[in-house]
Amino acid sequence: MPSSVRTKDFVSMLDFEPAELEACLSLAARVKRDRILGKKAPTANALGGAHVALIFEKPSLRTISTFEIAVRELGGDVITPFPVAALSEREPAVDVARNLERWVKCVVMRTFAHSTLLEFATAAPRLHVVNALSDMEHPCQALADLQTMKEVWGDWKGRTVTFVGDGNNVATSLAHGAVMLGTTFHIASPEGYELPANVVEQATRAARHGAQIRLFRDPLEAVTGADAVYTDVWTSMGQEAEAAARKRAFEGYQVTTGMMRRANDRAVFMHCLPAHRNEEVAPEVFESPVSVVFDQAENRLHSQKALLLTLMASRAAAA
C-alpha cells in the first residue's frame, strides 16, 4: 500500500512533491506488471467498494475509459451523474460538490474552467478531486507520459523532452512533472502561443537534479539532442473558431522525419492523442517504430490506478 501524501486532491502536478510523484510512478510500474502477468494483485479490493463520480464537460475516450477500468479493478464503483457538458446547468458547482461529498469518495472531473476544480476541492473537504483535464492543466496525462519515459529511458535524470507546439494544458503539466524528476523541458511555440510566464516560473522553482526549462521559437533548435519529441493538436476542444488562424500560426511546427533526425539517435515520438495526421505530426512519424503514443495511452490506466491508490487507499488504511 502506498504511503500517505500531503494532499487529498490531484488538481495540478504541483500538488505532489517530487518524492510523492516518483513513488506514485513506481507504484504504477508495479500495478502494470501485475496486470500484464495476470497476477491476483494485492490492490484488487483496495478501494473497498468506494464510489467514484466521473464528471466530464468535454468528450473523452482514453481518460474516461481508463478511469472506469481503474476504479473497478481496484474494487470500487463508478457513477456518472451527468451527461457530457451538463455540470452546473441546474445548480451551482459548489452545491454539486457538497451533494457528492455525502455519497462518493472521489470525483474525477474534466472541465472547461480550472476554477471549477478548485471550487469542488474547497467546497467538499472530504472529497478527493482529480483533474481529468482543464483549460490550464492535464496532470493525469503527464503521469502516463512520465511513466512511459521511465520505461524507455530507465531514468528521468539528465534527459530532455521537447514539446513542439501550443503551450497548453498538456505542456504545462508535462513541464511541471518533467523538471520535478530531473528531466529538462524544452518547448518551441510560435509567437502568441508560448507557455505562460507563471508556468515557466513554477517549473523553474520546481526543478530538481539540474533540470531546466527553456523556451524556443525555432522547433529545429528545440529538438536538437532531445530524448523525446512531444506534440499535441494545434486546435483543442473549445477552440474550433480559431482553427484557421492556429493552422497558419503553427506552419513549420509539424513534427516530421527531418525534425526527428535532429533529436537524439534513440529519441521517441510522443503524443497525448487524439492526433491529426498531416497537421501537428507527419503520418510516417506517427506510425514509425519510434512512436510510443499507444504506450502512453496504455499507461493512462496504470498511472491512474496508482494515483487513486495514492490518494484514496492510503487514507482509507490510515482511517
Structure, explained:
It is a single chain. The mean pLDDT is 95. The chain is globular, with a radius of gyration of 19 Å. The strands form 2 sheets. The chain has a 5-stranded parallel beta sheet. Strands 2-1-3-4 form a 4-stranded parallel beta sheet, with helices on both faces. The chain folds into 2 domains: 13-137 and 300-318, Aspartate/ornithine carbamoyltransferase (Rossmann fold), CATH 3.40.50.1370; 141-296, Rossmann fold, CATH 3.40.50.1370. The chain is of the alpha/beta class. The protein contains 12 helices and 9 strands. It starts with 17 loop residues before the first helix and ends with a helix.
SSE blueprint and pairings:
Layout: H1 18-37, E1 51-56, H2 62-73, E2 77-79, H3 93-101, E3 106-110, H4 114-123, E4 128-131, H5 139-153, E5 160-164, H6 169-180, E6 184-188, H7 197-206, E7 213-216, H8 219-223, E8 228-231, H9 243-249, H10 257-262, E9 268-271, H11 283-286, H12 293-318
Parallel strand pairs: 1-2, 1-3, 3-4, 5-6, 5-8, 6-7, 8-9
